[in-house]
Amino acid sequence: MGVLSTIVVAFWVMLPAYVPNNAAVLAGGGRPIDGGRTWGESRLLGDGKTWRGTAVGTAVGTGLAVVLNAIAGDIGSVLGTTLPTFPLAVALALPFGAMCGDIAASFLKRRTGRRRGAPFPVVDQLDFVVLALAFAFVAAPGWFRETFTIEVLAAVLVLTPILHVGTNVIAYWLGFKDEPW
User: Fold this and answer.
1) Is 116 exposed, middle or buried (0-12, 13-18, 19+ CB in 10 A)?
2) Coil, strand, or helix at residue 43?
3) Angle CA(45)–CA(51)–CA(53) in degrees, nearest 5?
4) Cα–Cα distance, 83 to 121 (Å, whole number)
5) Cβ(97)–Cβ(58) under 8 Å?
6) 122: alpha, beta or left, given left = phi > 0 and alpha = psi -120 to 50?
7) Are 59 and 100 spatial neighbours (Cβ–Cβ below 8 Å)?
8) Strand duo 42-43 + 38-39: pairing
9) Using CA atoms, how far apart are residues 89 and 84, in angstroms rounded to an integer?
10) Which of 18, 35, 120, 181 is deepest in the core (most CB within 10 A)?
11) Cα–Cα distance, 101 to 130 (Å, whole number)
12) Collapsed DSSP state (helix, strand, coil) of residue 38
């Protein structure tokens, strides 16, 4: 697989994990997962992590995976590469893992004294990727090994921070976020 095909496949297989956090922001509000509980002097997670956002983000990512399955052959033909399809377990695991990764990062932020929205370099860019990949591996180890080759994983690790920073800046400019990171 050439470099361009590797990047295309990396983007394709991560789309169900890339989209959920954005969908959760748009769904906004609702009951916080931590119910307002604290650990020490800070909240466990904060108001930004809600049951509604987690459910909507997971549903949107899963729905996207289903749509990608339906168009994989046609899009792959246009792009001149074979695009993988998502087993149902992975279609659920990638977005739910992404949401859990973001929740875990929020927990770490609170434990390190960072407030909601404060930058946490590297963690902010890769938190959701780590758990999305872990959940996908647990859901379908064979599919994972076949799909996430070393080259595809490397592309994900390079591509994700670039996309993360770019989409956050755009969301900030559009007024969806209070800070550009």
Assistant:
1) middle
2) strand
3) 95
4) 31
5) no
6) left
7) no
8) antiparallel
9) 14
10) 18
11) 7
12) strand
C-alpha angle 11-58-51 in degrees, rounded to nearest 5: 140
155 CB neighbour count, 10 Å cutoff: 22
Rounded to 10 deg, the angle between the 3-18 and 123-139 helix axes is 90
Q: Which two tokens stand for residue 159?
A: 């591509």
Token readout for 13 is: 């297989």
87: DSSP letter: -
Instruction: Quote the tokens at residue 148.
Output: 């996430």
pTM over 0.90: no
Match 């900030």 to its residue by tokens.
Answer: 172
Per-residue pLDDT of the chain (181 residues; tens, 9 = 90+): 789 999 999 999 999 999 998 888 888 788 998 888 988 888 888 888 999 999 999 999 999 999 999 999 999 999 999 999 999 999 999 999 999 999 998 888 888 887 777 777 777 778 899 999 999 999 999 999 999 999 999 999 999 989 888 887 887 888 877 777 6
Within 13 Å of residue 151, how many CA atoms lie on the same side as its CB? Answer: 11
